[in-house]
Design a protein that fits this description.
Number of helices: 0
Radius of gyration: 14 Å
Strand content: over 45%
Order of helices and strands: EEEEEEEEEEE
Length: 116
C-alpha cells in the first residue's frame, strides 16, 4: 500500500513563506494526481491546490497568486506558500490518487501556523 509523508510545516509570521513537501512510497501503480488540502479547527477540509501527472494545476481562489504546487518527481509534490496570512493557519494534508480506480490515500498532515 502507498504511504504519504508530509513535511515542512511550522510557525511563521504573516507575510512569511513556507514550503511543504509530500513524498509517496510503497506499492504504487500510477499516480494520477496529487493534491494539498487543509483543515482549520471547526472548519471543513478544503482543497488548496492540485497537480496532475501531466502537470496541470488548480488552486483555490483564496491562495491563487500566493501558493505554487509542483511535482518534484513522479512521487513527490511540493507546495510553496508565500505571503502567508493568519487565515492560512490549518493542518495541511497531502492526497494522492492512483490506478484506474483513482484510489485515494492521505498523509497524516502537517501543522501550519501563521501568527505574529
Amino acid at each position: 500500500q502507498m504511504q504519504l509523508v508530509e513535511s515542512g510545516g511550522g510557525l511563521v509570521q504573516p507575510g512569511g513563506s513556507l514550503r511543504l513537501s509530500c513524498a509517496a512510497s510503497g506499492s504504487i501503480f500510477s499516480i494520477n494526481a496529487m493534491s494539498w488540502y487543509r483543515q482549520a479547527p471547526g472548519k471543513q477540509r478544503e482543497l488548496v491546490a492540485a497537480i496532475t501527472s501531466r502537470g496541470s494545476t488548480n488552486y483555490a481562489d483564496s491562495v491563487k497568486g500566493r501558493f505554487t504546487i509542483s511535482r518534484d518527481n513522479a512521487k513527490t509534490v511540493s507546495l510553496q506558500m508565500n505571503s502567508l496570512k493568519p487565515e492560512d493557519t490549518a493542518v495541511y494534508y497531502c492526497n494522492a490518487r492512483q490506478g484506474p480506480a483513482l484510489k485515494s490515500d492521505w498523509g497524516q498532515g502537517t501543522q501550519v501556523t501563521v501568527s505574529s
